[in-house]
Amino acid sequence: MRRRTPPPPSPLPQLDGIDPVRVRLPPGDMWTTVRDHLVARLAAAAGVIDGMLEAGRIVDAAGRPVTRDTAYAPGMFVWFHRELPEEEQVPFAIDVVYRDEHVVVADKPHFLATTPRGSHVAETALARLRRQLAIPTLGAAHRLDRLTAGLVLFTVRPEERGAYQSLFRDRLVAKEYEAVAPYDPALPLPCTVRSRIVKERGILTAREVAGEPNAVSHVELLEHRGEHARYRLTPATGQTHQLRVHMSALGVPILGDPLYPVVTDPVAAGDFRRPLQLLARTLEFTDPVTGSEHRFVSPRVLRAWSSYDEWAAG
Question: Do 170 and 31 fall into the same domain?
Fold first, then answer.
């Protein structure tokens, strides 16, 4: 089996904790210049690419600016920093609960995406921590939904990232979540929910379909106050929106959920009043590099449980 040659290191530094974009020119003779390929590949207006070229913002592996006339060469790498979207600043801190030479465990607030994606780039947990801790090599071993708060594991050394990611892939991390949702005295708890969940690209919500279960969640009642309760959720699998789908299917959708059981009107940018009441409370695993046994617990208290009236009023 032929081994793929790793790309050369980036000649550009990070910008605000964001890596530059790397593009490898594919085989073919469809393009005469690098510019022509970038215009076609990035679906960008020619004027945008020309402006970046004229400003010297697109460079080759040696850090030399690519010009409008640089000849197309299959296999060539070029780098540039994309224009960052205007982002609403999430006004909540991300806390570091543990740090050593291999990993960082952070407690992510609601509304903060884990990694750059779509319209959330600089205002993400990864970019913030790279800036805050001055660790440009920091990478995420897994992700939480933007609306979910709680513990996220990051790796310090790129060469070790795969070992930590495999813990999640192979289900070797014990995770517990906490949620606040309606209380139903007729709901038999504890219970284990098993179903098949599919999430289609471009569709906001996941859905349950007939077939072999691929999503398993254990649900326990911790306590209740009037019409609302606090639940412990233990997922045995990691399907997209799994806990939110399963709680909705039980008839007790998580408070503040804009997607389940029905999609509500989009929340206006900058409206942080009613966060999804879901928290990744614990992470427990054996460190694949050091062999240490780790158990981390978020000290966060879900707002709807500490003060429902305040949360409901926004």
Answer: no
